[in-house]
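Ticket #330: bound-state structure for manganese (II) ion.
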Amino acid sequence: MTDYPEAPQILESINKTNTVLLALHINPDSDSVGSNLALALVLKNLGKTVEIYSADVPPQNLDFLPAYSQITLKDPKEIDIGKFKLAIFLDSSDKLRITRHEHLSLPGGITTVVIDHHQTNTRFAQINLVDPKASSTGEILFNLFSFWKTKITPEIATCLLTAMAGDTGTFRWATTESTLDVASRLIKLGAGLKEINFNLYQRTPLEQVRYQAEVVRKMKIKQAGNTKFVWAATSFEEIEALGGSKFAVGGSDIGKTVEGTDFTLVLREEEKGIMTGSFRSRTDIDVAKIAELFGGGGHKAAAGLMIRFNEPFKNKVEEVINKVGEYLSK
Ligand SMILES: [Mn+2]
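RESOLUTION: The complex was predicted; output attached.
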C-alpha cells in the first residue's frame, strides 16, 4: 500500500470545513464518477455536506452506484465557487477538464486539492496528490482512505472498484500488483465485481454500438516511419444521424485490437467547431506525447485531445492526421 505525504494535509483541509465542492471531468468516465461518489460518501460519513457538479451527463450505466443521483448536472463555471472553502478535483489533469467553457477561475479564498493519476497533470491546485503509477484515481483514494483510517463501507468499496475497473478495462491494462491487491481488498470489503462488470460492459445503448460500428467501418491504417496507426473520424452530421454526441463513445478500444498496428486515434466532431480525439496504444508507443502536440494529454496507453477549430471538419481531420504522421516520421 502506498503512503502519500499529502494525505495528512488533505485530511486537515477537510476537517477545517463543512461543505466540500466536487466536480467530475468532462465526458466523465467510470473513474471520474466512481472516485467522486466514493469520496462524497466518505465525506458524508465524516459529517460533511458535499455538492457534486458535472458539466456533462454522467454515463447512464453507472446509475447502479450509490449516490449517483446526487450529481448535479451543471457546469462548475456556472456556480458560485466562492461560497465553498474547499474544492477537491479528482481525475482531472488540468483545470479546463472540469468545464465546457474556455476559462475557469478558482477564487483565491478557496482551498483547492487535486487527486489524480495522469502523468500530464498540471498540478493546478494548492495541494496536488498526483501518482502516475496508480491505475486510477480510485486506487489512489483507497490508499488515502486507508491512511486516514476512515471506514470503507460496501457502497464505498463498490464505487472505488468501479473506478479501477473502468480505467483498467477490468484489469487488462495499467494493472500492477498493487492494483490487484487493492481490488482484492475492496472485494473483501463488499464490492460487487460481477455487478460492476455487468453494468460496465453489458449496458451499451444500441445507438452507441451503431456509432462504434460506424467508427470501425471508417477505420484506415496509416503508416508513418516505422509506426502504423488506425484512425477514423466522424463529423457532427454523421454523429447526429446516429443518435447524437451522447452516443459517440468508444471505438478506440476496438481499434487497438487491430493486428500489426501501434495505436488508434478516433476523432469526433462533438459540437460544431469542437473536435475531440481518443488515443489507445497497442504497443509501447506513448500516446500522451502525441496528444500533447494538440494540447491534450493522458497516459502512455490512453490519452485524449480537444481542439477548437473554424475550418471544415474534414480539413481539420486531415491536418491532425498529417501532423501525427510527421511527428512519427521524425
Ligand atoms: Mn482516471
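RESOLUTION NOTES: DSSP finds eleven helices and twelve strands in the chain.
TICKET STATUS: resolved
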